[in-house]
Inverse folding.
């Protein structure tokens, strides 16, 4: 299917490569297409690179993989007309590095980036997921403990969440039993607020190859 | 050993009961001793109840199990003289219910309750732990998945953290391999910020009998 990815960083590139491998028609949207020449070569030019607006228009589904503090600006450039009626999978975290390491959250506690995006684009169905683990594990969950770990999903539209759960299985091999539906988009506060401990665990464990599992 | 517990809520009562069962000399500190008559009966009066100051003075180690938004006030009543030189195990979370459910955090992102307590009591060795799971599981980790799930520990004093890891094993059966040392007390930001998703998971799963496991 046609998939638009906003953001040309490691997350966008990792997701894009995996989706190209799965045979999807991927367009990555970026303000600096030249940064993606090496990536395009690495996927044998089996993908496209364009503006945020072009990528959003291209996608039957759009993935927000921009830096969280730049997401609203990127989505404005993408354009509401190119997002209306579509599912937007929001993977971004509002990490603020302006005060050095470790980062803090630019939006926190009484609001979340997921909610801000949903409020700004009421005709787009925002589904927050995959924002709580390393990009390699997002697309290869089986690489860790045979996939026996958890991700979360937040969104106001139940049908959109069910569709994303199907895609997460088809695209990356996530089993439905490992995807926990937390509820409406305000539950994105909880998953975005996992980032501070995620960053500290990265430091304590010395590797980003870990994930949360909810044991019950 | 002599253990002082500040706070007479469910967490304080659950920890107190378990520690009495282990043969420790427990005193619970509270502003309302009358609230603990039933609890005292339930432990066959094998414990004491007193003021915050009396419980802190009693303890060779002191456990803060007060409501997080009242912790600094309770510690002030406990008195620095009764806390100096001791390990203070901080289990509290600064949950703010004043705007209804779900709670938000009264201290968050650029600070934490653990840090505020450490700053206020520089001669006390604050160790934050156990604040990320249900009280029953704190004291009975084996009840869930044979104990195969994680807790975290934060503190500026490495020796104090090592001592607390030993106590967590002796008192409650926590295996050291399941206790992750995140680093200094500022890492308490990360564990306190787990509470928003914890509350949402409680709602989504319909039970508080779950915990995080860090899969690596």
């Amino acid at each position: 299917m046609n998939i638009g990815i906003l953001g040309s960083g490691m997350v966008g590139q990792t997701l894009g490569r995996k989706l190209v491998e799965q045979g999807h028609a991927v367009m990555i949207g970026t303000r600096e297409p030249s940064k993606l020449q090496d990536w395009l070569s690495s996927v044998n030019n089996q993908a496209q690179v364009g503006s945020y607006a072009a990528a959003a228009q291209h996608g039957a589904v759009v993935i927000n993989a921009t830096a969280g503090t730049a997401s609203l600006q990127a989505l404005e450039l993408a354009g509401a007309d190119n997002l209306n009626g579509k599912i937007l999978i929001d993977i971004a975290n509002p990490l603020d590095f302006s005060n050095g390491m470790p980062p803090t959250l630019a939006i926190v506690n009484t609001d979340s980036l997921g909610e801000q995006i949903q409020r700004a684009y009421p005709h787009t169905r925002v589904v927050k997921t995959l924002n709580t683990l390393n990009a390699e594990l997002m697309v290869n969950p089986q690489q860790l403990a045979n996939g026996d770990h958890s991700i979360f999903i937040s969104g106001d539209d139940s049908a959109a969440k069910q569709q994303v759960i199907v895609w997460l299985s088809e695209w990356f091999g996530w089993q439905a039993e490992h995807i926990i539906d937390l509820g409406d988009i305000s539950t994105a506060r909880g998953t975005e607020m996992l980032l501070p401990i995620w960053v500290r665990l990265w430091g304590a464990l010395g590797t980003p190859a870990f994930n949360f599992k909810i044991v019950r």
